[in-house]
Amino acid sequence: MRARLALLAAAVSVLTLVAFLVPLALLVRTVAEDRATVRATADAQSLVPVVGTADAATIRLTVEQLAADSGRPVSVFLPDGTVLGTPVPRTPAVALAARGQSLTAESAGGREVVIAVQGLPDGTGVIRTVVPGAELTAGVGRAWLVLALLGMLLVVIGLVVADRLARSLVRPISELSAVSHRLANAELDARVTPAGPVELREVAGALNHLAGRIQELLAQEREQVADLSHRLRTPLTALRLEAESLGDPQDAARITAAVDGLERAVTGLIRQARRQRPTAAPTGCDAAAVVADRVAFWSVLAEDTGRTVHCALAAGPLPVAVAADDLAAAVDALLGNVFAHTPDGAPFTVRLAPVAGRSAGSYGQVLLTVADEGPGMPPDTVRRGASTAGSTGLGLDIARRAAEAGGGRLELRTGPTGGAEVLLWLTPRATPTAA
Fold this sequence. Notes:
Blueprint: H1 2-45, H2 48-53, H3 56-70, E1 74-77, E2 83-85, H4 92-97, E3 103-107, E4 110-120, E5 123-132, H5 133-136, H6 140-184, H7 198-231, H8 233-244, H9 249-273, E6 285-286, H10 287-304, E7 309-313, E8 319-320, H11 324-341, E9 348-354, E10 366-372, H12 395-405, E11 409-414, E12 420-426
Parallel strand pairs: 7-9
Antiparallel strand pairs: 1-2, 1-5, 3-4, 4-5, 6-8, 9-10, 10-12, 11-12
Enzyme class: transferase
Cofactor: Mg(2+); Mn(2+)
GO cellular component, one term: plasma membrane
């Protein structure tokens, strides 16, 4: 934008200067020609009294002296055909002046000035002088050079002024852009210093107001989520007490472990809600260990509901670029969907294996597959909040965001038996080196 404004100022300056300097240059040349012609005419007219009253010898001496002083050729044509001064042939202009008409005409050597002298005894005499081209244009080149330098100076000044003006416009715009990018990167304390024209200052004030309002809304949302999560601690405490009072130690341990997992999730939710700035990327985890742990947890519930679990989990370690809590939440969401949206007794399969050579984009990734033999689900269910079974519609979105946070992705498709098949592609922490 700064370069374009400078270019626009240069174009306007050049056009303006051309519109003024070209006519001025032509005027300078015209004035120089007229000035030289007036001097030559005055010199020639000074001979009129001499030609009308003096004898031939006096006229010759006066003409020669005038030619020497002016540096121009001067000739006097007497009525009897005598030519005094510079010997030249009679020109059409001289012939016309012999009839009593003084004039100025252009010739090959310059500008010809002829003056008729009437009242002589034998007729009309003619005084002729020629203004050479060098005298007609004397000083014109220097004047044009001065005008050209003046024009260039004005263009440079215009460019400097335009650059300063463009800088005063571009700098606030660049600051607005930088602050908007900082806000997009969750730096909500970024603010713009209003500067520049009134319109830009208004935009800066509006952006600062928007940033402040967003900060207030996010703070309110964090507090509301934190308060809601904190309220869950009371029923969790009650569940823990109920679990401890169970007579079967295995059931008590199982329910207590579930309550502990739920409490950890609530604690993580509170911490995340109160987080002011994005933290560093997760360090990752062993996908084999996390998936095996969560499948073992859900296998107990599968046994209670008469479901058959087919597991094909690769031996670890399988390091992936997803935090352990996030991956556990994703696995819980996928397996929770199986129990929530398929009838009791419907079997499901969990597979975890490294993938090599599937395609250039997925080489070396780890694939987690959860497939069931239920009624299936439409592909658009992966949208956040989308659900066709009366749920919150957040389970698949949790899994998707967990995978994408580590550079992976989520796919949803229909399995061979018509049930749902969810593929969670996980990117390893260290990219393998090709052999």
